[in-house]
Design a protein that fits this description.
Blueprint lengths: L2 H21 L4 E5 L4 H6 L14 H4 L1 H13 L6 E6 L10 H13 L4 E5 L17 H11 L2 E4 L6 H9 L5 E2 L3 H5 L3 H8 L12 H11 L2
Parallel strand pairs: 1-2, 2-3, 3-4, 4-5
Length: 218
């Protein structure tokens, strides 16, 4: 990317922040993970630039931080803004524990409110080690070593998983993605089995809710 390309893209990101604010969204996240453009700047395995935007971690993060700062300036100050990162590339020479802490610190200094801690999907050489809540340790370390709120993601498939992560102080929020692909009403079902009567159901689904609550209490 030339400097002109980068300036044009930054303005496109800023325009998206304006649209999100105008539409009434109450939270904005900048995606810097999973091999997308800003991730490709950060990852040492994909950023091969030899100018001011390549080389050290600080240089590789320079453009993503520029984009973040421009969006943060446009986004309402009282509303939160998070950044999603790949905290581990699962490949030799990639992002590791020291780099992810430094990366999170740079975004914290720039005014980020939360770090959404994912991993991988940055290189075909990645060999991730999957398992239940397998990315939560990354969120835990960043939260408690960098001192910034984090979001845990990845193979969190039960409400008990999320509750245990939050209760143990390993993250401040949990994001549930793929379980909702298998069951779009996952949150409502988990709330029913946990006897969380305060969960709000669409009015047309109330008869189904009542039946599910009865079954969960047997």
């Amino acid at each position: 990317m030339t400097r002109a390309d980068m300036d044009a893209l930054t303005e496109a990101f800023v325009a998206s922040a304006r649209r999100a604010a105008a539409a009434g969204f109450d939270w904005l996240e900048l995606h810097c993970a999973h091999g997308y453009l800003l991730s490709s700047f950060i990852c040492p395995l994909t950023n091969l630039r030899t100018d001011d935007y390549g080389g050290s971690l600080e240089a590789r993060c320079r453009y993503p931080l520029e984009v973040f700062a421009a969006m943060r300036a446009e986004w309402p100050a009282h509303l939160p803004m998070s950044v999603r990162i790949s905290a581990h590339d699962w490949a030799p020479g990639g992002t590791d524990s020291g780099r992810r802490r430094a990366m999170a610190w740079l975004f914290k200094q720039a005014g980020c409110d939360l770090i959404d801690v994912s991993s991988g999907q940055t290189t075909r050489q990645a060999r991730p080690v999957y398992g239940r809540m397998y990315q939560t340790p990354f969120a835990d370390r960043i939260r408690n070593e960098v001192g910034i709120r984090t979001i845990a993601v990845g193979a969190i498939s039960e409400a008990d998983h999320a509750n245990s992560i939050i209760a143990a102080g390993r993250a401040d929020l949990c994001a549930i993605a793929r379980p909702h692909l298998a069951d779009p009403a996952w949150t409502l079902h988990e709330a029913a089995w946990a006897a969380a009567a305060q969960a709000e159901w669409p009015r047309h689904y109330l008869s189904g809710r009542d039946q599910l609550y009865r079954e969960s209490q047997r």
